[in-house]
Design brief:
alpha/beta; Spore Coat Polysaccharide Biosynthesis Protein SpsA, Chain A; 7 helices
Length: 247
């Protein structure tokens, strides 16, 4: 089974331009032959600049600005670049090789986080645009009882066949007209977690809770500046590092 990487990119400054460059440089270190798809979500091209010469990379300029984490699923539905996709953000950095050939589930979240009711209204609103949403809405209304977790950043390992199955049943493409801003994308994290659980009956993930990422005790407090200062000294806090910038 072939696999490759799909990453979403949003560049709005010189420092955020470093994210995708550093991301790909590391991916090429550990996965020199894997295809990489970059889906650009409304970047400011004043700042977009490649820092290296890249091979086997395809860049797609999204026609749906602001959809962020939804975009890899939409474009992967249209393009079977590989049998299995590793969907990541531009602000995720690999520091070891994981043999994704051995990840034999239809779908796995990269990281999870525990549910709360902070996005409840928006999750319900958005879920109503999906087909066959009764079971989804039941899980949402009983969020504190049902055994599902949210998919951090909607990042996952997913097969093309399973994604087609999800779209045929729920019509994920309906969300193109609903996911518009950061709050909507936060709701999407919860919805994807529900869908993965409903369809597999399992909670599968690769790297555990995002709250434990980088050995940090607080979410959203590890910036690229923090990361790069330690990286230059040969120190990394985790085999896969996620940094935040609140874009």
């Amino acid at each position: 089974m072939t696999y490759g990487f799909i990453l979403t990119r949003h560049v709005n400054s010189e420092i955020t331009n470093m994210y995708w460059n550093h991301n790909i440089k590391l991916l090429r270190t550990f996965y020199p032959n894997s295809k990489i798809i970059i889906i650009d979500d409304n970047s400011n091209y004043i700042y977009v600049k490649p820092m290296f010469e890249y091979k086997n990379i395809e860049i797609i300029q999204s026609e749906y600005p602001g959809r962020g984490e939804l975009l890899p699923y939409i474009y992967y539905l249209k393009n079977k670049w590989f049998d299995k996709a590793i969907i990541i953000h531009d602000s995720v950095f690999f520091h070891k090789r994981f043999n994704f050939d051995k990840y034999n589930k239809d779908v796995m979240m990269l990281w999870y986080f525990y549910n709360n009711d902070s996005e409840l209204f928006n999750i319900i609103r958005i879920s109503k645009y999906l087909k066959n949403n009764t079971t989804i809405l039941n899980h949402i209304h009983n969020w504190n009882k049902n055994n599902w977790l949210s998919c951090f950043g909607a990042q996952s390992i997913i097969t093309h066949d399973f994604l087609i199955k999800l779209n045929n049943k729920y019509c994920l493409t309906n969300l193109i007209n609903v996911i518009r801003n950061r709050s909507d994308r936060c709701a999407l994290e919860r919805i994807m977690g529900i869908l993965f659980y409903i369809e597999t009956g399992e909670i599968n993930n690769c790297f555990g809770s995002i709250n434990n990422n980088n050995s940090k005790s607080k979410l959203c407090d590890y910036t690229f500046t923090d990361y790069i200062s330690t990286f230059k000294n040969g120190i990394v806090l985790s085999p896969v590092v996620k940094v935040w910038s609140g874009r």
